[in-house]
Amino acid sequence: VTYDGYAFRVEDTAAPGFTLPQAADVRVLVDVPSPDTDVTATGGLTIGVSGDTLTVGGLKAVFAHDNGTSDVTNKMSAGSLIRLRYAAVLNTGASFSAPGGGGLDPNENTVTLTRSTSDGGTESRSASAHAYSFKVDVVKVDKDDTSTALGDASFEVSRGGQLLRFTKQVGGVYDGAYLLDAAGGTEVTTHADGTLTLLGVEARELSFRETQAPDGYFTVSDFMVEVVPVWNADASEVTVASYRTGGTNLAYVSQDGHSVTVADPSKSLANLPYTGGIGIVLLLIIGGVFLMVAVRPYYLSHRAEATANILI
User: Fold this and answer.
1) Is the peptide bond before 106 cis (omega within 30 degrees of 0)?
2) 164 in a domain, yes or no?
3) Do 116 and 189 lie in a common domain?
4) In the Cβ-directed half-sphere of 140, how many Cα atoms lie within 13 Å?
5) Which of 110-124, 272-286, 287-301 is modeled with the greatest confidence?
6) Statement to judge: residues 174 and 266 lie in one domain
7) What is the mean pLDDT of the chain?
8) Residue 89 forms beta bridges with which residues?
9) Which secondary structure element, helix H or strand E, spans residue 296, and what is its range?
10) Rounded CA separation 188/152 (Å)
11) How far is the C-alpha of 277 from the C-alpha of 294, rounded, in Å?
12) 143 and 264, same structural domain?
């Protein structure tokens, strides 16, 4: 195959839910003379993005050259690697996977390599990758009566010390859910039925801080929720995902595993220990003991005086 007629290109047609990068953000890397050597500026290499398709053509210029007789001659040893590196971003059309048996729905993307064959034709090889974006379901209830749902509870959510921002969805399948969005707000609030859904989060630890409890209730201590995925043998697919919680026993995984239950204690003496009020309870107990100790001498003195009066 002549050098001029030799084809070696990669094409990525983005699946729904993916937004491709700009052509300038694509990098072509090789492992010679050192790992991750950037050869994006190689003459003859073309990178283009049109609509939902990204194409990297002329890759032959990276590993071969024309030896003057129109034949293809390698300038890299067999076994050397060429890496195409770019980031496709999940957009509002992405699919979201639910932990706890709620359904795994990966965003699948396929890239195709087309190359020349010795008979003058071409052949193609494709490879797919799964990108997962998760949804987290929280349900707010009364600690003493878990059948009572609590709306209007507000939270701030952070990851790795960084406050996350969300935009509330209006209409569609996820109406009322909060989608991760750098331009959104920092507070998320439960609905009247106590539910709160976060979309677009990674399988990492999320920290929740209740900023406003429903009327008549204490705020719970800060707690964490983590989505824990289990991958298959070649790490290409998630086979199951579940929740893990920590920070307070008032936040726990629901019995069916589909959500995280957060139980708010009502403003009552019985619930003071759940809100850091155990010290108040101790003070009340100690005060009661002191009162009993103080009253007893008075009672004995009064009784002795009464007895003396009778004897007289």
Assistant:
1) no
2) yes
3) no
4) 28
5) 110-124
6) yes
7) 88
8) 19
9) helix 278-311
10) 9
11) 26
12) yes
This prediction has a pTM of 0.76
68-90 exposure pattern, b = at least 16 Cβ within 10 A, e = fewer = eeeebeeeeeeeeebebebebeb
Q: What is the per-residue pLDDT for 97?
A: 95
CATH number at residue 122: 2.60.40.740
The mean pLDDT value for 165-188 works out to 94
- 123 lies in the same domain as 175: no
Summarised one tens digit per residue, pLDDT across range 27-56 is 999 998 888 999 999 999 999 999 999 999
- For residue 243, give the amino acid letter: Y
Domain with 163 in it: what CATH number?
2.60.40.10
**Residue ranges making up the domain that contains 213:** 134-272
Cα gap 200→163, rounded to integer Å: 15
Name the domain count of the chain: 2
**Whether 50 and 161 share a structural domain:** no
pLDDT at 287: 67
> In the block, which residue shows the tokens 């220990």?
273
Same domain, 175 and 265: yes
As a whole number of angstroms, the distance between CA 219 and CA 1 comes to: 72
77-119 pLDDT, tens per residue? 888 899 999 998 888 889 999 999 878 999 999 999 999 998 8
